[in-house]
Design a protein that fits this description.
Layout (H helix, E strand, L loop, with lengths): L1 H19 E6 L5 E6 L3 H26 L3 E7 L2 E9 L3 E10 L4 E7 L3 E9 L2 E5 L2 E5 L3 E7 L2 E7 L4 E9 L1 H11 L4 H8 L11 E2 L2 H11 L5 H28 L11 H16 L7 H8 L3 H12 L3 H19 L4 H7 L5 H12 L11
Protein name: HTH araC/xylS-type domain-containing protein
InterPro entries: Homeodomain-like_sf, HTH_AraC, PchR_regulatory_protein
GO molecular function: DNA-binding transcription factor activity; sequence-specific DNA binding
C-alpha cells in the first residue's frame, strides 16, 4: 500500500511538472529528473518583438539597397512603417514614412553606384549613421549629396516619426543637367562631374515656399504613364535647380582638387582622437589641445577627421555631449539648466537651440522617455 501511495504521489508530481515545463527521466543506477522551464509569456513576447523588428529591418534595408520598384506597408506593436520605391529610367523616387511606438530600430542599407541624392524631410527628422558618424536632417529641411558608394544605417528612435522623400539621380540625368548650368554654378558642377563626394545632410537648409510647392505637386501628381514621367522629370529638374542655388555656397567653397590620401600613421592617430572624444566628451577640448595632445597639426586634424568621419572634431564632440544630455533628460530628474551646464553650456538657451537643431525637438520632449 505504501508503494502504491508513493507511485500516486510521483504521478501527481509529474503531472504538475508537465503542466509547467518540459521534463525527462533517465534510468540507471539512480533516477534523475531534468526540468526545462517553459518560456514565460514575457520572454515569448520579447522574442517575438525582436524577431519582428529584425525581419522588418532586413526587409526595409533590402528595399533601400536594391531600389527596385515596390512598396512595404506594415503596422504592428513596433509602429507604422511605409516604404516605397519608384524606379524610373534616370532616377528613383524613395518615400519613407516610419512612426515608432516602442523600441528603436537601425535599418542597414548601402549603395554601390555613384548617385546624386536629394533628400527632403517632410515630417520629423531623418537620422543616419555612416562609419560611426551621425547625420541628421531636421524636420522641413533638405540636403544635396553626392556618393560614390556607402554603407550606413537609418536610425529610428522610440516614439518618433520620419517622413521624407529622396530623389536618386543617375549619372545620365545629372550630367545632362550640369551641362546646362556649367559656368553658372561651375564649382558645384565640377565637384559632381569629377565624382568627388560631398554630404550636406548636417548642413541642411530649411525648405522654402518654392521647394514646398514643387514637392506638393510631386506628391499629388494626377497623371499616369508617360505624362507622369514627363511631369516628374521636369519637377525634379526644378528642385535640383533650386538646390544648386542653395548649396552652391555651402559646397562650392570647398576645395575641388584636394588630396584625400591619409598616411597610416595619421589614420591611426585620427581614430585615437575619435576614441578619446568618445571617452572624454565632457572634458573641455579644442582643436589646439587635441593637436598638441596627439602630435598632429591642426590642418591634418580637421581635414583628416572630415575625410574619415565626414564631420569636424568639434561637431562630433558636440554631438556626443548632446546625445549624453538626451539620456540625462530621460533617465534623471536634473533640470535643464543643470544638464546644460554638465555638458558644457553656460546658458540653457544656447543648449536648447543646439539640442533642437540636432534632434529636431526641444529638450522637454525627451523628458521622462525611456
Amino acid at each position: 500500500m505504501y508503494v502504491d501511495r508513493l507511485k500516486g504521489l510521483i504521478r501527481q508530481s509529474l503531472f504538475l511538472l508537465q503542466a509547467t515545463g518540459k521534463f525527462s527521466i533517465h534510468k540507471g543506477n539512480e533516477t534523475h529528473l531534468n526540468i526545462v522551464r517553459a518560456p514565460t509569456k514575457q520572454n515569448t513576447v520579447t522574442m517575438n518583438a525582436r524577431h519582428v523588428r529584425e525581419h522588418l529591418e532586413v526587409s526595409i534595408g533590402k528595399m533601400l539597397t536594391n531600389l527596385e520598384g515596390g512598396e512595404i506597408t506594415q503596422e504592428n506593436a513596433l509602429g507604422k512603417f511605409s516604404c516605397s520605391v519608384e524606379d524610373h529610367d534616370q532616377y528613383i523616387i524613395l518615400k519613407r514614412d516610419f512612426e515608432t511606438y516602442d523600441g528603436e530600430m537601425a535599418i542597414p542599407f548601402s549603395r554601390q553606384q555613384p548617385s546624386l541624392q536629394m533628400i527632403f524631410s517632410i515630417n520629423g527628422q531623418s537620422s543616419f549613421n555612416r562609419s560611426s558618424s551621425p547625420f541628421i536632417l531636421s524636420p522641413k529641411s533638405h540636403s544635396l549629396s553626392f556618393f560614390n558608394r556607402f554603407e550606413c544605417k537609418n536610425l529610428l528612435q522610440k516614439g518618433t516619426r520620419q517622413q521624407d522623400i529622396t530623389f536618386g539621380l543617375s549619372k545620365s540625368f545629372y550630367a545632362n543637367f550640369v551641362a546646362n548650368y556649367l559656368g553658372v554654378y561651375d564649382r558645384l558642377s565640377s565637384l559632381i562631374m569629377q565624382e568627388q563626394e560631398f554630404n550636406t545632410i548636417n548642413e541642411h537648409i530649411a525648405i522654402d515656399a518654392a521647394i514646398e510647392g514643387i514637392l506638393n505637386n510631386i506628391l499629388s501628381c494626377p497623371f499616369q504613364g508617360e505624362m507622369k514621367s514627363v511631369f516628374m522629370r521636369e519637377h525634379i529638374r526644378a528642385l535640383l535647380a533650386l538646390q544648386f542655388f542653395h548649396f552652391n555656397q555651402v559646397v562650392g567653397d570647398r576645395s575641388i582638387s584636394f588630396d584625400t590620401r591619409i598616411t597610416k600613421r595619421d589614420h591611426d592617430t585620427l581614430h585615437d582622437i575619435k576614441d578619446y572624444i568618445d571617452q572624454n566628451f565632457l572634458v573641455p577640448s579644442s582643436i589646439e589641445m587635441l593637436s598638441k595632445r596627439f602630435g598632429i597639426n591642426e590642418f591634418k586634424l580637421k581635414h583628416g577627421f572630415k575625410v574619415l568621419f565626414d564631420t569636424s572634431p568639434m561637431r562630433y564632440l558636440q554631438y556626443r555631449r548632446l546625445t549624453f544630455s538626451r539620456s540625462l533628460l530621460s533617465d534623471t530628474d536634473k533640470t535643464i539648466k543643470e544638464i546644460a551646464h554638465e555638458v558644457g553650456y553656460a546658458h540653457p538657451a544656447n543648449f536648447t537651440i543646439a539640442f533642437t537643431k540636432t534632434f529636431g525637438n526641444g529638450p522637454l520632449s525627451f523628458r521622462g522617455k525611456v
